[in-house]
Design brief:
By secondary structure, the protein is mainly α.
Amino acid sequence: MNATLLIVLLVGFPVVSFGYTDPGTGIFLLQSLIAGSLGIIYSCRKAISRLLFRQAEEPVQKSGQTPEQQ
């Protein structure tokens, strides 16, 4: 019974389907995508800034020595 129903459904429907999203739904999905992306970037901004603006580490000085003595 299930196999027959599956075959009828597969044969009965066209292979090509055309999707349509009305303008209200489309702009809502776009706004959600943009807001989510910006929210992730905003919440991770400290880690991103550390990766993008890495400064060279200063050399560690040995105790009691000036930088010229090293």
